[in-house]
Design brief:
There is one protein chain. It contains 16 helices and 20 strands. With about 500 residues, the chain is α+β, with helices and mostly antiparallel strands. α2 runs antiparallel to α16. The longest helix is centred in the middle third of the chain and has 26 residues. The relative contact order is 0.10. Bound molecules: iron/sulfur cluster (2 copies).
Length: about 500
């Protein structure tokens, strides 16, 4: 144990090279095989702890395969979607300038914000459900921060090697080889980040047009800004910030604990089975040596992307990636021990015997059932709402310049009707009005709107002065689509001022 001679100056650092003995509950010296970083107690009264670069070791196994699958799937969707076409246009395009959002055969207007809200509610319920079932599944397998960090680390490994080689390279003095390896990593990161920024902007500007503009070096200032901004965010978060985003910036890490209960599956180290930890030969009998199953190889710490030691118990820094499970299962296999020293377990089902069936059964409990009902209920309402959407949307806006005026023996009100054709075919619509005796649209009242287009039309409505009551009367515009056989009714107020 080392201690500074004076406690007056800051920062004061106290280091204690003892570890908790899980079996006896007493402190014991750190093992010679290497004290896990987070197992060493360290108190720093400075405001900020110095950041230590984490160099995770690559890992293979069931959960690593799942993560790779998720990386490939999510990135196929992200990078591929903007290049897909639908009816001779980009399949998914959020055209902010025209205020139209195309999602395959669906055209949404800003007025359809309710669907976006429903999507966000569904995403929230899904997050609640998965968190209640198996803690940070989203963080460990599908969050963009995890996904891009995985891709960036894969690139890093291609040029700089796995953990040990990277650490040696970091410590080595500058050389041609170091320059080449580091430079190649950085170049690949920058290219991928720019491509990511370009793809992101391609969701808002037609990507073929964007490509032509890039080729002609004629990108607009906003496009340049967003490509660089999104690219920089990707580069910074996945290349440098990495686990710090999860530990210090992501709010989800802070509040997800409230969604846990005694049946939530969390990545857990079985201290009862693993302790006392200690190295031994493969042939040695751990019982004879008085040891548990943990061989203290620290591989679980070395593969951890947040640099924690799961053997110290549940920690908020754990993103639930299960890399430590893969690493430890590999060690257990080599030692000839049964797997699952580190595994998914819940407070109520901590032991592995028959655990899978028991854990699945406990996944179906009131909390998860409520989340599931809310999720599927919102999804059903979302789909039903989309299916029942009118192919034409009409907004009625009163002309505020002329509330009401006499025209001969009639009273006239003027409205502006905004037609939005949500189909890929031209639309012809006939406008009529109901609600007062003798009420009629002047000048015919029909309009044509191009496919997926919108049109504003001034409409004059007159009623006989003798029949129109003073004040405001509720009337209804009736719009009939000639092609789509649809009828849309929009309420409005007819004003009479005498
Ligand atoms: S990987 Fe398994 S055996 Fe190795 S230190 Fe971690 S828990 Fe112990
Ligand atoms: S402790 Fe295990 S599950 Fe948690 S972040 Fe580290 S490697 Fe992933």
């Amino acid at each position: 144990m080392s201690q500074p001679s004076s406690l007056k100056g800051i920062p004061v650092r106290v280091e204690c090279s003892f570890q908790q003995d899980h079996a006896s509950g007493t402190a014991r010296p750190a093992s010679a095989s290497g004290t896990p970083r987070s197992a060493a107690m360290s108190f720093d009264t400075g405001l900020y702890e110095k950041h230590r670069k984490i160099q995770p070791r690559s890992v293979s196994g069931v959960f690593a395969n799942w993560r790779i699958t998720m990386v490939v799937l999510t990135q196929l969707v992200f990078y591929g979607l903007p290049w897909m076409t639908w009816n001779d246009r980009q399949a998914v395009l959020f055209d902010l300038a025209a205020r139209k959002f195309y999602v395959f055969g669906l055209l949404l207007w800003p007025q359809d914000f309710i669907f976006l809200a429903a999507l966000m509610v569904m995403a929230a319920f899904a997050l609640f459900l998965f968190t209640a079932m198996a803690e940070r599944l989203w963080c460990g397998f599908a969050c963009p921060q995890t996904v891009y960090t995985e891709i960036f680390m894969w690139i890093e490994r291609r040029f700089e090697g796995d953990r040990t080689r990277r650490m040696k390279l970091d410590a080595a003095p500058l050389s041609l080889e170091k320059l080449w390896r580091k430079g190649s990593t950085q170049s690949a990161w920058v290219l991928l980040s720019l491509w990511t920024g370009f793809t992101f902007v391609g969701y808002f500007t037609p990507i073929h047009l964007l490509s032509a503009e890039v080729a002609a070096l004629s990108l607009g200032p906003w496009e340049v800004f967003w490509v660089l901004f999104y690219g920089f965010a990707t580069y910074g978060n996945a290349g440098f910030m990495r686990e710090q985003v999860c530990k210090h910036m992501c709010p989800y890490a802070r509040f997800q604990g409230v969604m846990f209960d005694r049946d939530t599956l969390v990545v857990t180290y079985d201290a009862e089975r693993g302790e006392p930890r200690g190295s031994r030969s493969r042939k040695a009998d751990p019982q004879a040596l008085g040891l548990g199953s943990c061989v203290d190889c620290t591989l679980c710490v070395q593969v951890c992307p947040t640099g924690i030691d799961i053997r110290n118990g549940l920690q908020y820094e754990c993103i639930g990636c299960a890399a430590c499970i893969d690493a430890c299962d590999g060690v257990m296999a080599k030692m000839g021990y049964s797997s699952g020293l580190i595994r998914y377990a819940s407070v109520r089902t901590p032991r592995p015997s028959g655990a899978m069936r028991e854990m699945l059964r406990r996944s179906l409990r009131p909390r998860t059932a409520i989340y599931a009902v809310l999720l599927f209920g919102t999804a059903a309402a979302f789909v039903t709402g989309l299916a029942a959407r009118d192919p034409v949307r009409v907004d009625v806006i009163r002309d505020r310049n002329a509330l009401s005026r006499p025209v001969g023996d009639r009273i006239e009100n003027v409205y502006r009707l905004h037609f939005m054709n949500a189909t890929e075919q031209p639309g012809r619509y006939v406008i009529s009005v109901e609600g007062l005796p003798g009420l009629q649209v002047v000048d015919g009242g029909s309009v044509e709107v191009e496919p997926t287009g919108s049109r504003m039309l001034a409409v004059r409505v007159q009623a006989p002065a003798d029949f129109a009551p003073s004040g405001s009367s509720r009337i209804e515009f009736v719009v009939r689509g000639l092609e789509h056989g649809v009828e849309v009714r929009e309420p409005a107020a007819f004003l009479v001022t005498r």
